[in-house]
Specification:
Layout lengths: L3 H33 L2 H32 L3 H36 L8 H24 L2 H31 L4 H33 L5 H6 L2 H5 L1 H27 L3 H27 L11 H25 L8 H34 L2 H35 L3 H33 L1
Length: 439
């Protein structure tokens, strides 16, 4: 007899397959739109993205309903947790495909006939699509061997992306007329590389689903000893990389405001590389806690903390991607306010490594003064976040006074929102740390 839980799990399985098919179609449509310079195909990706979002909402609602009404345990609970994570990764893949498709309209508006590095972009797109196909197949077949092979495939995608970035920068330096198309080509490559990363994340969830833990030899090889032995040291290292990513994003913003496209592109690439580095550490923290390790904190709280902290680097990447959509949209009158807001958000994030270090010492030695210092740093982060909120509101009022152009308004307001999220995620991470030291 089929239970209600089993029936819902079957429905979730079907929804994931349907969602993955749409994401695959969206990726192929986006790449076809780029190579054909076809605005109609690009618009179709937007329609597909709406369908992908709707399915994710449906999966989330059904998962919550199953958890609330059936209270599944063991393998069933792991399946639902994995499905939620996989649906999120697929939704992000859909967003990445839409980012690629949006480049078509920009290229057409600028009169560009083609992107740079067409052959390499085709190879990267095919590699990302192949990784997505393998990731979903391993989910359907519950094949952990196939899942682990997806991580190995990621190396090929990374190498192609790095080659594209290097070649595009060289072309832009030799011909200033190709700077804009070079920016678009680079952003397409970076979005494809992130799709490949998200395929790896899906495969990792399959390993977790089948084996109850995450383990990938490729990540062990790249992980420093601190990642494998002392999780809080890994969190501190991750926080430092996140802050390096923010610093690069700040430089990128400065070049954007100064209309220095060459340096904007160069630093945009460095932001992406640093964000990728932060992702690698996050994956290692989540995937390689040694069996039997005794920790004073719950590992799920640890995972939630690193995920929230990693969103700070994601915000840096999102800002750079967003700025590249509209050339030099931030007016000089707004530059001071934008820099002030970013600096305040960075102030909040800069305290994360020290907060983690003090918490690590407290968990190790149990000295109350370190716990007190953690609480003090949490209060400081909250203060910076509140000050950033005030600056954000003031800056938005100023934007409405500077321009009435709807496109510029939307672009500038969204850029300010993205910057403000840096402080929000830093505060969220701080609140999670407060919960961990309170236990």
């Amino acid at each position: 007899m089929v239970t209600r839980t089993q029936q819902w799990i079957t429905e979730l399985n079907t929804s994931i397959r349907k969602m993955s098919t749409l994401v695959d179609e969206s990726l192929h449509t986006a790449m076809m739109a780029v190579f054909r310079q076809d605005a109609e195909l690009a618009n179709r990706v937007k329609e597909q993205d709406n369908l992908i979002d709707a399915i994710e909402d449906e999966i989330r609602d059904n998962s919550i309903k199953t958890l609330a009404l059936q209270q599944p345990m063991g393998a069933d609970l792991r399946f639902i947790a994995s499905v939620l994570s996989i649906a999120h990764e697929l939704e992000r893949m859909g967003d990445r495909s839409l980012n690629i498709a949006n480049r078509v309209h920009l290229l057409l508006d600028e009169g560009q006939k083609s992107v740079l590095e067409v052959t390499a972009l085709r190879q990267l797109g095919e590699a990302a699509a192949r990784m997505l196909e393998h990731a979903i197949n391993c989910f359907v077949s519950q094949d952990t061997k196939l899942a682990k092979s997806v991580a190995q495939m990621d190396e090929e995608a990374d190498k192609i992306c790095e080659s594209i970035q290097k070649n595009v920068v060289g072309v832009m330096q030799s011909d200033q007329h190709l700077v804009n198309v070079g920016i678009h080509s680079t952003i397409i490559a970076l979005n494809l590389e992130r799709i490949a990363d998200q395929a790896v994340n899906i495969a990792d969830q399959v390993v977790y689903l089948v084996e109850g833990h995450r383990t990938r030899a490729e990540w062990v090889a790249e992980a420093p000893p601190s990642v494998l032995k002392v999780p809080l040291e890994a969190l501190e290292r991750h926080a430092k990389i996140v802050n390096e990513c923010l610093s690069l994003a700040k430089e990128t913003l400065s070049y954007y405001i100064a209309a220095d496209n060459d340096h904007f592109v160069q630093y945009s690439i460095m932001v992406s590389q640093k964000e990728h580095e932060a992702d690698a550490v996050k994956r290692n923290v989540r995937g390689h806690l040694p069996k039997g390790i005794i920790m004073p904190i719950d590992k799920f709280e640890l995972f939630a903390f690193v995920k929230e902290q990693d969103k700070v680097a994601d915000d840096a990447q999102a800002l750079v991607d967003w700025l590249s959509l509209v050339k030099n949209s931030i007016f000089p009158d707004l530059a001071k306010g934008v820099h002030a807001l970013f600096d305040k958000c960075i102030d909040a994030a800069l305290l994360l490594p020290e907060m983690i270090r003090e918490a690590r010492i407290f968990f190790r030695d149990g000295e109350e003064r370190h716990r007190t210092q953690v609480k003090h740093l949490i209060r400081e982060i909250r203060t910076f976040e509140h000050e950033a909120d005030a600056l954000e509101i003031g800056l938005k009022h100023m934007i409405f006074k500077v321009t009435t152009d709807p496109i510029l308004l939307h672009h500038q307001l969204t850029a300010v929102d993205i910057i403000g999220e840096v402080a929000n995620h830093a505060e969220n991470a701080a609140d999670m740390m407060r919960a961990m030291i309170a236990q």
